[in-house]
UniProtKB/TrEMBL annotation:
Gene Ontology CC annotations of this record: beta-galactosidase complex
Residue ranges annotated for the Beta galactosidase small chain/ domain, each copy included: 721-987
Catalytic activity: Hydrolysis of terminal non-reducing beta-D-galactose residues in beta-D-galactosides
SMART domains: Bgal_small_N
Entry protein name: Beta-galactosidase
Sequence similarity: Belongs to the glycosyl hydrolase 2 family.
Keyword Oxidoreductase: no
């Protein structure tokens, strides 16, 4: 087969042809035909501008001895050639389309390779899977062509120039900027070069040029239909030229006894359908006399029925994430292992859908989605977001000269990826405004692949989208859309059409830094309203590039760290996993909220309710483990026998029938909790048996109120003291408890602002700073012994400079034994308080640095905040102070443990230290730096341990929300300045020795 170079992409204006000399696009598939990977070490020359690039370096005899080496695939900026740059929406070059700056970094690549002699006389194709952003290619001095479309494949026919059995010289000139860059304004690092595989493919005459697998499933009958077309190539130009005529090919699927000619439709009376929950694939082959091509067939039908998106006739709820390709060392040149890591992590965290924001991923990733089961919205490599600042004036999306480029991109994606059952929708791209070229893409894809709905968010009229898609809509708007009572469009026809479409949030819950809050409330809306079919959290991974500072310390870099003239800072650090793919608390929370079975324990009603939120799977795949813990210690445990619950159904059972032990709890057992966990009963492809998928907790017994007896008459003045506690005579602050030195608790309202606090939309952090919340002054108004002689009372006024508002804080200290004191704190706002939430309300104290081990009883083990606490379960937990820190790439408030009943901070070797007992609960953070240090740091490695452990004991924290892009905290999570009362007991623990 030697398909003619297609010429349908010539545009009217020179410089806008997306490709030249490139073969028509086709599916990416394996084959038994020989192939040669050209990945590896290439010769490389980098020039800061085209003018400085070496002339004639594509000639075979060019002397490249002075050049360096660069690995293919990779990005040259990550190998020391030039520097990475990050902008989100703004183009890093003048808006002057289709022109690009003279300083256009240019990479010249050369490779000498030797194809086996058996290839002689056979057709061959050279394939590039991804080159950013444009390239020209020469083989043995002959120019093959050029291409743009960084995340799209380009194939060149090399039959006439390849010389098997001898040395061949391949030369590629890559330019960082091209007309294509105007279409690639995605929110990510600008990184260049040959970053995906380069492969030489022998193409046997009479082989399989292209295949299109059509495999549907009829939910009513359980039958599958299969037709595999073996085409020359697609007819994208609509000119009736269908490329080469197809060879005689057969389609063979042994497991289903299928052996039919290509193009023929077979019906399989009963077939197991493919879904994300049950990714059944059948292995088959497309066979011609000259070639065998393996195919993995998943029978499934995607449809929009009565305004609902269905797969195999069932409504799907997309528990999705947006995935950019990223690795902290390799950028977008990700390995198969990186891709597998992502897929396994997603599956293990209950994710069932991926939007490939904002470009087609490496095709191997889609193979993994087919295999492990993830629904995919495959998004085209298209974004022109920078035009938003010009009110979309000049946007390529509506300019006819760009039409071919748009169609070229869509065709290259659809043709490459059309055989993946995991792909349930095509997406035209992201944030490219509205326009005729998008409509053209939509229409082309509709006709080429009627089996998949098409997604596009950027035009809210939905003229080019089969679903109504939005990003960052707040809960109230999502609810209105769910009830189909959203604000109408001006055009009633468009409005009626949109109102009839299913709704997805293609982006929501911006996972930047500490967050996102508000997930639970979104999920409830998705479950309540049929139209709301879920969404995709923004985004999967922090794009922090591993870098070293001048003293060699490693850190993750973000925008501005490479001296960019324009950048968007840490807005690229907004993932559910850290750059090294460690799950962040946000992912742990998401996993809990999107669990596919819900376990509700209601000890008052005495019931256990299991709701199966799966689409097709019953609950037979789970084992149910339970444990009763009294004061955190396991008291009884076992495995439940539960009949399988059908998908979409819920079953309520009496607790005592299942777990008689719930009635056998002795008095004085303390706080007692029952935990039930759904774990995989058998190994799955993506996790071992025992992997926890879902859990629920119910409190069987509340703690008996335990108020230690106050030692009467223990308060003294001169110097101020209560029992074994000593206070500073001027400030009234606790300085010693027994033999333990402390810097006494004092009122604290500051937290190192989170990215969500700092967001322009929330404007909280800026207002807090303006009002001086981060620099409160403490004035002690009086230190007295109460009339009863029991309590030392310290009255303070806490206020920022220049302001008349204040918090009046009264500390009432009593002795509750030799080495323990009880503190009752009363806080009352005073004066003209601004209408602002408080960051936190609590106490801060400092204790010696060697008290580095923390144990607590309460929710854990991870951090939790008022609106991010579903993943925390009540029990005994422990961690070192260091391990309590969540290493957000951009330092901010973190590590807070919520509703702690009691905690100890001790010396790990002696057990000596401090115990804190809540009345009833407190929030806890402990860190080796102050809040001010945390606030000042810009990267995690800039935080240095001090000589103390700084502890905060919180009455409450303000919610986290998701305002860094989207709504802030819901009103019920707002912390208002209001009268508050709070009590804790502080006890000196002697331990076994020093400390
Ligand atoms: C939205 C973009 O689609 C996405 O790529 C990312 O930049 C995200 O924002 C924020 O991280 S667009 C935004 C202006 C709503």
């Amino acid at each position: 087969m030697t398909p003619a170079p297609h010429s349908t992409h010539r545009s009217h204006r020179a410089g806008l042809a997306p490709t030249a000399g490139v073969l028509p696009p086709r599916a990416w598939f394996d084959s038994n035909a020989p192939r040669l990977s050209l990945n590896g070490a290439w010769r490389f020359h980098h020039a800061p501008a085209v003018a400085a690039a070496p002339d004639g370096c594509w000639e075979p005899d060019y002397d490249d001895a002075g050049w360096g080496h660069l690995t293919v695939p990779s990005h040259w900026q990550l190998a020391g050639y030039g520097r990475p740059a990050y902008t989100n929406v703004r183009y890093p070059f003048p808006l002057d389309a289709p022109n690009v700056p003279d300083e256009n970094p240019t990479g010249d690549y050369r490779l000498t390779f030797r194809p086996p002699p058996e290839w002689a006389g056979r057709p061959a194709v050279l394939r590039f899977d991804g080159v950013d952003s444009s390239f020209r290619v020469w083989l043995n001095g002959a120019e093959l062509g050029s291409a743009t479309g960084s995340r799209l494949p380009a194939e060149f026919d090399v039959t006439d120039v390849l010389r098997p059995g001898t040395d061949n010289v391949l030369a590629v000139r890559v330019q960082q900027w091209s007309a294509g860059s105007y279409l690639e304004d995605q929110d990510m690092w600008w990184l260049s070069g040959i970053f995906r595989d380069v492969t030489l493919l022998a193409r046997p005459a009479g082989g399989v040029p292209d295949i299109f697998v059509h495999a549907g499933y009829d939910a009513a009958t359980g039958a599958g239909t299969l037709r595999v077309d073996v085409d020359g190539t697609s007819d994208r130009a609509g000119d009736g030229d269908d490329g080469d005529s197809a060879p005689a090919a057969r389609v063979v699927v042994p497991e289903l006894d299928i052996d039919v000619p290509a193009g023929e439709t077979v019906t399989v009376p009963t077939v197991r359908p493919w879904s994300a929950e049950s990714p059944q694939l059948y292995d088959g082959e497309v066979v011609t006399a000259a070639e065998r091509v393996p195919v993995r067939i998943g029978f499934r039908t995607v449809a929009i029925e009565d305004g609902v998106l269905t797969v195999n006739g069932r409504r799907v709820l997309l528990r999705g994430i947006n995935r950019h390709e990223f690795h902290p060392d390799r950028g977008r040149a990700v390995t198969e292992q990186d891709m597998l890591d992502d897929v396994l992590l997603m599956k293990r965290h209950n994710v069932n859908a991926v939007r490939t924001s904002h470009y087609p991923p490496h095709p191997h990733f889609l193979d993994l989605c087919d295999q492990y089961g993830l629904y995919v919205i495959d998004e085209c490599d298209l974004e022109t977001h920078g035009y938003v600042f010009e009110k979309w004036e000049g946007n390529p999306s509506d300019d006819p000269v760009w039409r071919e480029s748009y169609l070229d991109r869509m065709a290259r994606m659809v043709e490459r990826d059309k055989n993946h059952p995991s792909i349930i929708m095509w997406s035209l791209g992201n944030e490219a405004g509205a326009g005729a070229n998008l409509v053209a893409m939509y229409e082309w894809a509709r006709q080429r692949d009627p089996s998949r709905p098409i997604h596009y968010e950027g035009d809210h009229t939905t003229v080019c989208s089969d679903v109504y898609s939005r990003m960052y809509a707040d809960h109230a708007e999502v609810e209105a859309i769910g009830r189909r009572i959203e604000e109408p469009l001006d055009d009633p026809v468009l409005d009626a059409a949109r109102r009839a479409k299913p709704f997805v949030l293609c982006e929501y819950a911006h996972a930047m830094g500490n967050g996102p809050g508000g997930l639970l409330e979104y999920q409830r809306l998705f479950e309540m309203y049929e139209r709301c079919q879920g969404g995709f959290v923004w985004e999967w991974i922090d794009h922090g590039l591993r870098t070293r500072d001048s003293s060699g310390r490693e850190f993750y870099a973000y925008g501005g760290d490479f001296g960019e003239e324009l950048h968007d800072g840490n807005f690229v650090i907004d993932g559910l996993v850290f750059p090294d793919r460690t799950p962040s608390p946000g992912l742990i929370e998401l996993k809990k909220i999107i669990e596919p079975v819900r376990i509700d324990l209601d000890p008052d009603a005495g019931t256990l309710r299991v709701t199966n939120l799966h689409e097709v799977a019953d609950t037979g795949r789970y084992a149910w483990e339970w444990v009763i813990e009294a004061a955190g210690a396991p008291a009884a445990w076992g495995t439940l026998k539960l009949d399988p619950v059908a998908p979409g159904r819920a079953v309520t059972s009496p607790l005592t029938a299942l777990i008689p032990q719930v009635d056998e709890i002795p008095d004085g057992a303390g706080e007692v909790w029952l935990t039930v966990r759904a774990v995989l009963a058998a190994d799955a492809a993506w996790a071992d048996a025992g992997h926890e998928v879902a859990w629920g907790q119910g409190r069987l017994r509340a703690p008996a109120p335990r108020r230690p007896a106050v030692v009467a008459g223990a308060a003294r003045m001169d110097p101020p003291s209560v029992g074994g506690a000593r206070f500073d005579a001027t400030t009234g602050r606790l300085v010693r408890l027994g033999d333990l030195d402390l810097e006494g608790p004092r009122l604290d309202i500051w937290r190192a602002p989170t990215d969500n606090d700092s967001a322009q939309a929330a404007a909280n952090a800026a207002a807090w700073r303006r009002k001086g919340f981060h620099r409160m002054h403490h004035r002690t108004e009086g230190i007295d012994v109460a009339a009863d002689g029991d309590a030392l009372v310290v009255r303070t006024r806490v206020a920022p400079a220049a302001e008349a508002f204040a918090l009046l804080a009264i500390y009432r200290w009593t002795a509750v034994g030799d080495a323990a004191v009880r503190l009752e704190l009363d806080v009352v706002p005073d004066g003209p308080w601004p209408d602002l939430p408080l960051p936190r309300l609590g106490l801060r104290l400092a204790i010696p640095a060697h008290l580095g081990l923390v144990r607590w009883f309460g929710p854990g083990p991870g951090e939790a905040y008022p609106d991010i606490r579903q993943a925390a379960r009540v029990g005994n937990h422990g961690a070192t102070v260091d391990a309590l820190q969540t290493p957000y790439v951009f330092p901010q408030e973190n590590g807070h443990r919520i509703d702690v009943r009691h905690a100890t901070l001790t010396d790990a070797s002696t057990g000596a230290g401090l115990e804190v007992v809540g009345d009833p609960v407190f929030g806890l953070t402990a860190r080796r730096w102050t809040t001010e240090d945390l606030d000042a740091a810009r990267h995690h490695h800039e935080l240095h341990p001090r000589e103390h452990v700084f502890v905060t004991l919180d009455v409450a924290q303000h919610g986290i929300g998701s305002a860094s892009c989207g709504p802030g905290e819901l009103p019920r999570y707002r912390l208002r300045a209001a009268p508050a009362r709070f009590a804790v007991v502080l006890r000196r623990l002697a331990g076994t020795g020093r400390g």
